[in-house]
Design goal:
heterodimer, A: 321 residues, mainly alpha, ABC transporter involved in vitamin B12 uptake, BtuC, two-stranded antiparallel ribbon, 12 helices, 3% strand, globular, B: 394 residues, 0% strand
Chain lengths: 321, 394
């Protein structure tokens, strides 16, 4: 494999890691506040559908993106009501949201477009266009750095750059603001936050809604940037992979970037090399496709070091009366 | 507080209210896409239970859901959330196919025993890895079982398209048909035996209905699960572990053992679903023999309060939804099969996650009704002058 081939793989790594990155940061906000969210997958799917539907209807990808975020926020609100207000089981709520999204997207999609659950192909302004970073063409001929800048970093859609910017932003919010301190505290010891006179319910709702916003971006990216339209079950387990990446990253933003890039690389390799020959044995395509899922299990098995989740994660907070 | 509600309200009223809410929201969804919810409902009931033909399909689907529902419920009792029923049932199908394809069984009863062993073993094996990872490495069983669903479907595609494929199957990845001697007795055979006539219909007909002897096996499995959980030491340990892990640990119950055993039983039960779908219905292994039944098991177990009787009733309900849903789709194409997924999600949401939303007001209602009892004499004097009201008072 030559240098340009390597750049191509890294380029698609970045593309494929972006939805995982959004979802992983979304899960980070939610879980740091003590709310487990198995429903990332469903929210991503709902957002992908509605963003593609709205983009094809209005012809404007930004309106589509907004609609997708709206869909994701709706499901996030359901998760919040179930797990914060009514103190239900957060896992069950998340599972319900996943099924709800995979059912509703097809039912509504079929009723609106009649294309077997797809949305019409998105074209032109209904899709996120690739952005050339400044001077990309001019320095493309510089050895080594030129191709890296022009081929790898430049030429992605706006959401890729927004995703990358979200990493330092998340870090800043969590570790450098009062809100972030309280958010982290509410995931470790909600009673202490409550004693300090800060609303546990309010903080957790805020976290769940930020999670909805970010998964909305992940879904919109899937349907309007990575591909050109919605396809049934297009999230393909990315929500769960993002959760595994979150555990791998030990609930920290910069590590989340690394973890999602690793999964992106794996997916990119699986797409690029449909079959690989190892010692005269042909590794089947299906194995390459299952690789991200297998790696998820390996990472969860903790062969990469001990990961300690936020202590109050998954437990509803009951205020003493 | 468990004693705030009378027992009948806890096991019947609350699930019914939750179900009603789920159906109302589903009706709103149907209305939203421009169809008449009441027409859909009446078509659904007609298709599911309006005829012997409908019933025979409804019970066939219910059989699948009893198996997966029981599987999920056994794990629930140990406070484990097994979302991997789908993958475990797929592997169960593989176990059935391997047991039936390579041995010339003389009679279906022997083949059934072998297939059950294969199905349960393969299903349990697929649950064993996530269970071990949960028990020893603390990996989140929800995520690992979901990943094993994806891995199972990749494995099935590989095996069916490369290894078990019959030459000349017309491109669709499936195994050869099982030998005719292994076919399970189906409802049509009973009709022929008793000399009852059955009408050939285009959509659903008793003569060709897939309902088979596995239905009785499912009921037996329900009884076995009840006996295991409430009448054996192991069942007690599973339930104790589910109620409180520290207490179970203090009582000398090994968490590793309980997690492993509960998940093996859970996976085995989900795998047994393949007896019905692969051996009874398809009579060969096709690419997706499970068709979401593993996930329906979650809704069934939640609605049935993880008790075999409740599970059988909830499975019947979902059997009706599946069969009736197909019937509705035939008449109103706008209502696609995924509508069932929506209803399933809403049932999980209302019975599982939003349970307190219904429970809290009901508890308040029952507490209010109970409160006047000790203050009976004063309330009797207060309501003097009204003979009607006095008569009502006990």
């Amino acid at each position: 494999m030559d240098f340009l081939g390597l750049l191509q793989i890294l380029d698609s790594t970045l593309r494929l890691a972006t939805p995982l990155l959004f979802a992983c940061l979304a899960g980070l906000f939610s879980e740091r506040a003590g709310i487990f969210d198995i429903g990332l997958e469903g929210k991503m799917l709902a957002s992908a559908f509605l963003s593609a539907a709205a983009a094809s209807y209005t012809g404007n990808v930004w309106l589509g993106c907004l609609a997708g975020i709206g869909a994701s926020l709706m499901l996030a609100a359901i998760h919040g009501v179930a797990s914060i207000t009514f103190r239900g089981n957060q896992l069950i709520s998340g599972v319900a949201i996943n099924f709800l999204a995979s059912g509703l997207t097809v039912v509504v999609g079929e009723a609106w477009f009649g294309l077997g659950g797809r949305t019409p192909q998105l074209m032109g302004a209904a899709r996120f266009q690739e952005i050339d970073l400044p001077f990309a063409r001019e320095i493309a001929d510089v050895p080594l750095l030129g191709p890296i800048y022009a081929n790898l970093l430049s030429g992605h859609s706006a959401l890729v750059y927004i995703g990358l910017l979200c990493v330092p932003l998340t870090w800043w919010v969590l570790y450098r603001t009062r809100f972030g301190l309280r958010l982290r505290a509410v995931g470790e010891n909600p009673a202490a936050v409550d004693t300090a006179g800060v609303s546990v319910v309010g903080l957790r709702y805020a976290a769940v809604m930020i999670c909805g916003l970010l998964t909305g971006l992940a879904g919109a990216y899937l349907a309007t940037a990575l591909s050109a339209g919605f396809v049934k079950e297009m999230s393909a387990g990315r929500g769960f992979i993002a959760l595994a990446a979150l555990i791998f990253a030990k609930w920290r933003p910069w590590y989340a970037l690394g973890a999602t890039l690793l999964f992106g690389l794996l997916e990119a390799l699986g797409n690029r090399f449909q079959t690989i020959e190892v010692f005269d044995i042909t590794v089947p395509t299906q194995f390459m496709q299952a690789l991200p899922y297998i790696l998820t299990v390996v990472i969860l098995a903790g062969f990469v070091g001990r990961a300690i989740p936020p202590r109050a994660g998954g437990e509803p907070y009951i205020k003493e009366r | 507080m468990n004693d705030a509600l009378p027992k009948w309200a806890d096991i019947a009223l609350i699930p019914l209210l939750n179900l009603t809410l789920a159906l109302i929201v589903s009706g709103l969804v149907v209305g939203f896409i421009g169809e008449d919810p009441f027409e859909v409902l009446s078509l659904l009931i007609e298709g599911a239970v309006g005829s012997a033909d409908g019933w025979s399909y409804t019970l066939y689907y219910a059989t699948n859901f009893i198996f997966t529902g029981l599987g999920v419920a056994v794990a629930f009792h140990a406070r484990l959330f097994n979302i991997g029923g789908e993958g475990q049932a797929m592997l169960g199908g593989l176990g059935v196919a391997l047991a039936l394809l390579y041995v010339p069984w003389p009679h279906w009863s022997l083949a059934l025993l072998a297939a059950m062993t294969g199905a349960a073993l393969f299903g349990a094996a697929w649950a064993a890895i996530p269970a071990w990872l949960q028990a020893r490495r603390g990996s989140h069983i929800v995520i690992t079982t979901i990943m094993f669903n994806f891995i199972a479907s990749a494995l099935m595609v590989y095996l069916l398209s490369r290894v078990l494929l019959v030459p000349g199957a017309g491109g669709s990845p499936e195994t050869a048909r099982f030998a005719a001697a292994t076919n399970l007795p189906a409802i049509g055979d009973l009709y022929a035996l008793m000399g009852w006539g059955c009408v050939e219909r285009p959509i659903a007909s008793v003569c060709r209905a897939p309902l088979n002897i596995a239905f009785l096996l499912a009921l037996l499995a329900g009884f076995a699960v009840w006996a295991l959980l409430w009448r054996t030491r192991l069942g007690y340990e599973i339930r104790a572990f589910g109620h409180s892990e520290p207490a179970a640990l203090y009582a000398g119950i090994s968490p590793t053992k309980i997690i492993m055993v509960a998940m093996l039983i859970s996976g085995g039960l989900c795998g047994l679903m393949a007896i019905n779908a692969v051996m009874g219905e398809a009579e060969r292994l096709v690419i997706d023999p499970v068709q979401g039944a593993g996930f329906v098991g979650i809704a069934v177990a939640l609605m049935g309060r993880s008790h075999p009787i409740g599970i059988c009733l909830a499975a019947l309900l979902f059997g009706m939804l599946y069969q009736g849903g197909g019937y509705v789709e035939f008449d109103i194409p706008a209502i696609s099969r995924e509508m069932i997924l929506v209803i399933q999600a809403l049932v999980i949401l209302f019975t599982g996650a939003l349970d307190n939303m219904v429970r809290a007001p009901m508890e308040a209602l029952f507490l209010n009704r109970r409160r006047p009892e000790p203050a009976l004499p004063t309330s009797a004097t207060r309501s003097d002058g009204d003979p009607k009201e006095r008569k009502v008072e006990p």
